[in-house]
C-alpha cells in the first residue's frame, strides 16, 4: 500500500519546520491537476432510457395531444431509448424533454415528462450515411474517424432519409445475412410495416459482401463484416444517424 | 439568515427517503427539520457501530471516486444540458468552477487507483439538475454531504500520504460547501467544529437517493429482425 501511494519525489521539503524542531509537513500522495472548464459541447448528443410507458405529446403540457406512446422496451427486448433534443419547464414547474421518436412517419418528435425518463447518456459521435455515394462516415468530436462502403435500400424499398439514432446492439446470434453485429436504429421502413418487428432499419453485416456497395436491401444499411466490426468498436448507443 | 435544513434543499425528498431508511422514520423526521450541520443533527447522525469499521485504503479511495464521479457528472450534465447557462452570472461561475474541480478530483483518483478503480456507474439525477432551482438545492446538500464524508473517512486512511491528499480534498470541498451555502443565503460556516459521518452512513444516503442506477440494457444476444 505504501509503495502504491508513495509521495512524489519532487514534493516540497520541510526546512523551515525543521529549523523550528517541528516535523516536516505531510506530503500528499497525489495532487489533482489544474481544474479545466468544460470544452465545447457542440458535438455532444444526449439520450435517455424510457423508465415507464408514457405518452409523447405535441407540446410540453399534459393537456396537449399525444403523438405516440413510448414503450419501455424495444422489439429486441432491450431498453427503449430516445434522443434528447430540448428541455422546457411547464407552467407548473414540471420539466419536459423534447425527444426524437422511433415512430412513423420518420422524423416524429414529441414532448415527454422528464420523470418518465432515466438518466442521460452522452455521446460525441455521429454517423453519416450518404445514399448517393453509398458510404458511411463515423465522426467523433466532429472529426471523421472511419469511412466504409454500404449497401442500402433497393428501388421500392429505399432506406428512409432523415435524422435518427442508434438504439440497440445485437451480438452473438447465428443469422449469417445479418453478419456478426447488428445495430437497431430509430428509422423505420415506410414500406415494411408488416415486418415481424415493425420494419426497423438496422445497420449490420452481411453474408453477401459482393453486393456492397450497392442498392440491395429492404431498407437496412449493410456493411462488410470487417467494416461492421470496426464500426462496432467505436459506435456507442445513442449516436445520432443522418441519412441523406 | 435562516438556518438551512434538509427539507429546504430536498424538494424531491430523495435525501429524506434515504435518511428514513438509514435512521428510521422518527430520527429522519427530526433530521429533515434540523439545521444542516447543527450539533443536534450531527449527534443524531453519529452511530457508534460505524467507528469500528475497518476498510482498506483502496476501498476508501474507490468510495471517494464513486462520490467524486457522482458530483462531477452532476455538474457536467447540468452544464452540457444548459441548466447552468440559465443561472445568474455569479451562480454560473460557482457551478462551472465546482464542476471543473470535481472533474480534476475524478481524474487524479482514477490515475492513482489505475486498474483497481471501480467501474464507472450510470447516473440518473432525475429532475435534480433540470432546473436552476433544483440544481442549486441539490448541489448545496451534496457539498455538505461531501464534507461530512471526507471528515469521516480521512482518519480511517492508513497511508500518511493519502491522509495528506484527502485533507487537501476536504478543505476544497469545505470551500465548495461554504460557497454554495452563501449563494442560497444560508450561513456558510454554521458551526465551530465539523463532526464526521461514516462511510456506511454516507453510502446509505448516497445509494438511496437513487442517483446511482444500473446501466440501461441496450444490447442483447438475439437474432435481428430488422427490415433486412
Strand content of chain B is: under 5%
Number of DSSP helical runs of chain B: 8
Distance between the termini of chain B: 66 Å
First-to-last CA distance of chain A? 56 Å
Shape of chain B: globular
CATH class of chain B: Mainly Alpha
Could you name the CATH class of the largest domain in chain A?
A: Mainly Beta
Rg over CA atoms of chain A: 25 Å
Main β-sheet of chain B: number of strands, strand sense, barrel status?
2 strands, antiparallel
CATH superfamily of the largest domain in chain A: L,D-transpeptidase catalytic domain-like
Shape of chain A: globular
Q: Helical amount among residues of chain B, as a percent range?
A: 55-70%
What is the CATH architecture descriptor of chain B? Up-down Bundle
Number of strands of chain B: 3
Explain what the structure shows.
The complex is a heterodimer of chains A (about 240) and B (about 230). Chain A is built from 2 helices and 17 strands. With about 240 residues, chain A is mainly beta. Chain A has 2 domains: about 45-120, SH3 type barrels (Roll); about 125-244, L,D-transpeptidase catalytic domain-like. In chain A, the strands form 4 sheets. Chain A has an 8-stranded mixed β-sheet, with helices on one face. In chain A, strands 6-5-4-1-7 form a 5-stranded antiparallel β-sheet, with no helix packed on it. In chain A, strand 9 (about 135-140) and strand 10 form a beta hairpin. The mean pLDDT of chain A is about 90. By secondary structure, chain B is mainly alpha-helical. Chain B is built from 8 helices and 3 strands, in the order H-H-H-H-H-E-H-H-H-E-E. Chain B has helices at about 5-10, 15-35, 40-45, 55-80, 90-115, 130-155, 160-185, 200-205; strands at about 120-125, 210-215, 220. In chain B, helix 5 (about 90-115) runs antiparallel to helix 7 and helix 6 packs antiparallel against helix 7 (about 160-185). Chain B is globular and about 70 Å long. Residues about 45-55 of chain B have low confidence and may be disordered.
